[in-house]
Amino acid sequence: MSHLAKAATIRDIQFKNRIIKGAMSEALANYQGQPSQLHCGLYEAWAKGGLGCAITGNVMVDFRAKNEPGVVVIESERDLAALKQWAQVGKRYGMVQLVQLSHPGRQCPKGLNQETVAPSAVPFSPMLATTFGTPRALTEAEILDIVQRFATAAQICEKAGFEGVQLHGAHGYLISQFLSPLTNKRQDQWGGSIENRMRFLLQIYHAVRAVTSEQFIISVKLNSADFQRGGISEEEVVAVFKAIDAAGIDLIEISGGSYEAPAMAGLKANKREASTISREAYFLEFAEKIRQQVSCHLMVTGGFRTAAGMNAALDSGACEFIGLARPLAVETDLTNRLIAGHDVRYAVDKIKTGIPMVDKMSIMEIIWYAAQFKDIAQGKQPNPKLSPLKVFFKYAKGNIKAMIKGQINSRRRA
């Protein structure tokens, strides 16, 4: 029997197989950050394809801090009815759904929000400084407010019927910014030592656990490394994993990188060691190391392309779950095919527009797939040959309109 097909249980909630869809930006919400029937259509397609669990795309906990247009925002019970409909999709097909809760911190394009905030006022690298502005350092009161926002959003997700949440602590978002010495230069209890830098993550976890039931799953996505000189060390990463595990986390998804070093998009694959390439997954070697240090469930996402490679990873004991993202954007029935022993149909290469400035960034690794999601949500078939250039110009046009409307809405809410 395929390891992929084996059921698993977390907090009395059964996962019918070991394949989890990793978070990918859907960009399907309206200007107010409200979910719609498009979300239901998209996740129903994956559920029909046999998926055991789906982690949603980034859901923001603060309307003033959106990472992109079209992102869902949960601040109150305003959209509880729509969220209930979304949660019911998974229940109809036996697909567990975890809502990825996030705050982008400094990773917000210029003009999208009135301002950006972060642990410290650290600017981006010159290549990205034209797209992302220098943030303002958060005050103590603002940090505590954000902690509570995560808890409030999680509480609403449980009320809606979702089985759990994932705290986004990777890819350079706010939790990751607190963890990294590159972006956290604070001298108070939130910065300095790794014990202080992980305080934000741990307080969010405890706040979420305090307002949700014993059956509610809390997971976290963490970087194995920043992939930047001067970033968080491996010793510090291990300390973070051990601390959140000791706190009671149910599942850790292992990833890596940020907008400035996008290892999560596979853009550094050519620099990986040959042994890692032969075993497919980008972060499997780190998973094997950390498996000896923590007792919670582990999930590895990134690089898996064959059923044999996924089964081998599970058989090794390095992880209990296989995370898939981009392949599911062009093959909604991939889960059933993998369990049957077939491999990924389409090789997922770097998405290039031919415009050097655009191709140096990881933005196309998000918006090209979001274009596929919109088609799937509307009942259409994904198109692996979709023109990246066409997608980019359509996105740029829509982005300008969204930023203008977003600024107007932000002023009205102020």
Description of the molecule:
This protein is of the alpha/beta class and 414 residues long. The chain has one domain: Aldolase class I (TIM Barrel), CATH 3.20.20. 40% of the residues lie in helices and 13% in strands. The chain is built from 16 helices and 14 strands. The strands form three sheets. It has an eight-stranded parallel beta barrel with strand order 3-4-7-10-11-12-13-14, surrounded by seven helices. Strand 11, helix 8 (234-247) and strand 12 form a beta-alpha-beta unit. The model is unreliable at 267-278 (pLDDT under 50).
How many structural domains can be distinguished in the coordinates? Answer: 1
The helix/strand series, from N terminus to C terminus, equals EEEHEEEHEEHEHEHHHEHEHHEHEHHHHH
For the residues shown, what is the average pLDDT?
Answer: 90
- Tell me the name of the CATH homologous superfamily: Aldolase class I
Helix content: 40-55%
Proportion of residues in β-strands: 5-15%
Alpha plus pi helix count: 16
Number of strands: 14
Please name the defining characteristics of this protein.
single chain, 414 residues, alpha/beta, TIM Barrel, 8-stranded parallel barrel, 14 strands, globular
